[in-house]
Design goal:
4-stranded antiparallel sheet, alpha+beta, 7-stranded antiparallel sheet, homodimer, Beta-lactamase, 14 helices, 406 residues
Chain lengths: 406, 406
């Protein structure tokens, strides 16, 4: 796990980023200089991505927001035993996992809602790769409606990928991250594929203002390595291929599809946003924590709200049944024993139930446990990206919350 | 006036900007290369600024939108005689003034609503300098509440401006654009003050990614020329000084103040947005046309909605009484004889009434005629910026609309 700094000098409220009219020069956070992704600026930036980058909004529709009923419960006295055996009180566990917000819905009621760092009820936090799970739901909905064939080879839908790793991959293999590919992820080499990729998606500033390479230019160059369908391998290009597939099959951008299929129906309080890349394609998205858990609640209830089916129940069932645990095990995630991956969701298989989890870099989690009528949403801004670094604290927290409520 | 191109090759629907997943390279519009502000890309860009630049949203609040009642009237058979004597049919007048949308509210009911180009009911168009009039209302509200002294010298509120043109200017002189200043507006010289200014405000891409000059760095360098209070002079720095004043006096950014004072109370259908500059300050804003006229309707009704006072009636009265017509005349606007300027609103003084007008580059207009219970909102994307170039067609259109409804 991350060793927390001894002091709270990373707290954005204390550091005063972007405060004042104008803020002092050394308190300015800008996209151009990449300071927005430096530490500890990151603790502010992840809650203000739309003020740093171009976005397109996910419209909530014209209706009123559906209030979340309140039934507060106390968790402050809980003790957390981390995966490596350390005892932490509730407050320390929240702080040491760099929490920006935590919201627990039980039977559709808010039993816990607290914000830290730059978090607040009306602040939209980037959900990073938790967005993959949103796109997974869109893709599975298209499959259910017969607009997308899960067994089709990718080039049938995206001919541009005929000479890439995806030439003989199926849509379902992309959804399940079972693609064998070469992908050079050396973050220390600015010319490595991962950086070219981040620049093309607009998630990293270009080397020069005139650089111009779209994701659609980079993806066809991804080369195959090994065989598809033999091991879970969590690789960024897959979600961009999936987004491309969903746009082509749904004949609309992800923003519009997510708004029309989901956001206009869940009583959302706020519009969401998608970060727009220079080619007009979406990368990750941002939402308020309350709206994030509203989406989780839709998954928990099998896709229905007040007897109105928003997402087909079969789609939710397919996700919750999970994927192949043996293929998942090959990826070697020590904190996730017995888990699987299905349609862009991480699936936790327990003795008596399955839980669906959306996970994003720096501490974004949406945890759905239908058996226990439980949805937990968490935003964070940890200094390091990998979600696994926070599992040590957060997975035991999930279980403490679950125990208290069941 | 602009000579319209003979063909409709500038119609963004026909040119296919940013269409397809992905769009072809030559149909991509990007902020970085300034193609977004080239012609005819501009016809698409002004309706998609938030997808090109960082923004902060003007929240509409959690409530339902207040539907605008419909009472359609026919205008298509109207003939327009332009200021230079040309006869145009209604459709040609709309097209030759590069209209993206036109909405007429009479007694609070929609009598005309049409969209063209990249316009649509749910599309947020940048309102350019029409935003100045919004900020004017915020400033006058603060003055009314005693939080801002109209007669105070600017450096009392913004000490940073003590050595600038604003050292001996009053807040009201800034509001009324009566500031004598040197401001080198040579658009052909990239080092001229106007370009430094546009780069600092984030409205123009920086020369390099590492360039870093805030508006608050540029404004103190604006030098005085002549005397204040002697002539109307419409200069960009004034609105940025005013924004700075409103932020300091209101102790919140413009986004929050506009949301809390106005947008949460007018039954808006959509959030608006402010373009955020690299120092966290707002420049211009964008809204849907329906929400734009909802704001106009608030001005028309003296700041009240259904007997609830949203903006003080005295603020609206002060604006509508207008400014000094003699001082205005010195600026030499040929299309605006007898007009004045008050608190960031252009005031049309007619024999029997005053009308308040918000105007923005490339054809944005919000026209409020309380005497005739009329509000007209217009979005446009004309090739050239000056509003006066469209007056030739649009002022006679206003009068045709007024005549038909009264």
């Amino acid at each position: 796990m991350n060793k927390p700094p001894k002091s709270k000098v990373h707290d954005p409220r204390k550091l005063g980023w972007m405060k004042g009219f104008p803020p002092p020069h050394d308190k300015v956070i800008r996209f151009a200089e990449k300071s927005f992704y430096a530490w500890p600026q990151l603790r502010w930036s992840l809650s203000h991505i739309d003020e740093l980058m171009p976005t397109k909004r996910v419209w909530r529709g014209p209706g009123p927001c559906r209030e979340l009923p309140q039934r507060p419960r106390v968790f402050d006295d809980a003790m957390i035993v981390t995966l490596n055996g350390t005892e932490l009180c509730w407050g320390d566990a929240l702080e040491q996992s760099y929490t920006d917000g935590l919201l627990v819905l039980h039977r559709g009621e808010v039993v816990y809602e607290e914000y830290f760092g730059a978090g607040a009820p009306d602040v939209r936090h980037i959900i990073q790769s938790a967005n993959k799970s949103f796109v997974g739901i869109l893709a599975e909905s298209l499959i259910y409606e017969g607009k997308l064939d899960a067994d089709a080879l990718v080039p049938v839908i995206i001919p541009e990928l005929i000479d890439s790793a995806y030439s003989d991959a199926t849509v379902q293999q992309v959804l399940d991250m079972l693609i064998g590919m070469e992908f050079y992820e050396d973050y220390l080499d600015p010319e490595s594929e991962i950086w070219r990729f981040h620049r093309a998606t607009g998630m990293s500033p270009p080397s020069s203002m005139n650089q111009f390479e779209l994701v659609a230019d980079v993806l066809p160059k991804v080369k195959k390595a090994g065989r598809h369908g033999e091991a879970f391998a969590y690789r960024e290009p897959n979600i961009f291929v999936l987004g491309w597939i969903v746009r082509r099959a749904g004949m609309q951008d992800l923003t519009t599809q997510l708004s029309e299929r989901v956001w206009q129906h869940i009583g959302a309080e706020h519009d969401g946003y998608y970060i727009m890349d220079p080619g007009g394609a979406e990368s990750s998205s941002g939402f308020t924590l309350r709206d994030f858990v509203r989406f989780g609640e839709l998954v928990r209830t099998g896709g229905a709200i007040e007897s109105k089916q928003i997402i087909p129940a079969a789609v939710i069932d397919k996700v919750l049944r999970g994927g192949d645990q043996d293929l998942f095990a090959k990826a070697g995630y020590k904190t996730l024993p017995g888990w699987s991956y299905k349609s862009q969701w991480w699936i936790r298989h327990l003795a008596d139930r399955n839980c669906a989890v959306a996970r994003g870099a720096h501490g974004q989690v949406l945890y759905v446990d239908p058996e226990n009528e439980l949805v937990i949403g968490r935003f964070g801004s940890a200094p390091k990206a990998p979600s696994t670094l926070l599992d040590d604290i957060f997975l035991p927290m999930l279980d403490v919350i679950t125990d208290r409520l069941s």
